[in-house]
């Protein structure tokens, strides 16, 4: 499963199990994730989300540096964000002011912002930053809490690549390139994976090592979380372009609806 690979471990908040992004991590995030900010990636994402938001407002959980939220706001969708890391939010604030895109500092499972939304969304595997099933359930409940009748909750999430694990193997590579080596190791009992990253740091041949923990979840498990929160599955596709979701899909974009 492809992961955001810039988090640093061993820094925690008492209100959530999520690892906290550091100042150094936030400052280099946009540069190291430039591919995810390309038009090829963002255009279908923004079109998908804007159509669901319609004439209403959108709330992004874990908005980060605003990779999606800022250009969605530029398309005319009023956006509000929730972000755990003050450092990530500070990078976003360099791009757009508070009046145009308000951001609340807090965790996405419990933080409440004023108003009602037609769309709540979570992109790029970020729900896995919540390391317990209970917290992921609360994330769904928090989404439902913010949605008006008929509103949608959208999650983009990779499918756990456990088919690539032969007996006795616990690691799966997801990126092997000149500038980055990434692989995931799995705890199959706790549904925890650790993403390990070796990233080239400058031109002197040195590599920076980092890792982050995530709780992976299957589509069917998310559907049950949605039902607990009073949401109904509306559709599931293999990506922002709307391709059909199949047993061979590496990820899914799922849409749950709050009954009218």
From TrEMBL:
One of its GO terms (molecular function) is methyltransferase activity. Keywords: Methyltransferase, Transferase. It comes from the Bacteria. CDD domains: AdoMet_MTases. Coiled coil: none annotated. It holds the Pfam family Methyltransf_25. This is Class I SAM-dependent methyltransferase. The lineage of its organism: Bacteria, Bacillati, Actinomycetota, Actinomycetes, Kitasatosporales. The gene is cypM_3.
